[in-house]
Amino acid sequence: MPCIKCGSCCEGLFVPNITEQELFSRDGDPSIEFIQQHWKVIAQEEGEQRASWVHLSKSVIYLECDQFDLDLQVCTAYEERPYICSGYPFYKGLSTKADALPPKCGYRKECDDNG
Ligand code: SF4
Ligand code: SF4
Q1: Which whole number is the average pLDDT over 84-99?
Q2: What is the pLDDT of residues 72-83, one digit of tens each?
Q3: Could you count the other beta carbons within 10 Å of the beta carbon of residue 20?
Q4: 6 lines ligand 1 (CB under 6 A)
Q5: Using a CB cutoff of 8 Å and minimum separation of 24, what contacts does 72-78 make?
Q6: How far is CA 54 from the centre of its chain?
Q7: What number does the ligand 1 atom closest to the CA of 9 have?
Q8: pLDDT above 60: residue 115
Q9: Which of 6, 19, 34, 99 is the most exposed place for a label (fewest CB within 10 A)?
Q10: 36-60 pLDDT per residue, tens
């Protein structure tokens, strides 16, 4: 099932297994300026509340994107969004386990099937 545009992955934005410094300074990433401009790290506790489905043993950085409209639950920068967003949840193996995806996410079945 494709993306059903539930907004959960934007509201509960996180990136696993990377340091804050690495995330904001990746040479050669064409999306880096967008990420530097629009993403900010939020407190672990708040992130865990927003992304309560995340049960990863890896270290996780929780983030907030100022391009996400909380009321409408939509991305307001859809055409310019980073590859990490447009490739979600398969960007570089970011979340290939269904239990790392929001409960409503339409990709859960596909991730389950991929193991
Ligand atoms: S750029 Fe859009 S898709 Fe990416 S996190 Fe922000 S609101 Fe979500
Ligand atoms: S959580 Fe899944 S279904 Fe919901 S917006 Fe993100 S990719 Fe789409």
Answers
A1: 77
A2: 999 999 999 999
A3: 11
A4: no
A5: 73/5, 73/6, 73/7, 73/10, 73/11, 74/5, 74/7, 75/10, 77/34, 77/38
A6: 11
A7: 8
A8: no
A9: 19
A10: 999 999 999 999 999 988 876 668 8
DSSP state of 65: E
In angstroms, the CA 109 to CA 66 distance is 29
Q: Token digits for 84?
A: 């990490």
Instruction: Copy the structure tokens of residue 37.
Output: 């401009």
Report the Cα 28 to chain-centroid distance in Å: 20
pTM for the complete prediction? 0.89
Tokens (6 digits) for 94: 């970011």
Q: Which residue has the higher pLDDT, 82 or 91?
A: 82
Name the residue with the closest Cα to ligand 1, atom 8. 10
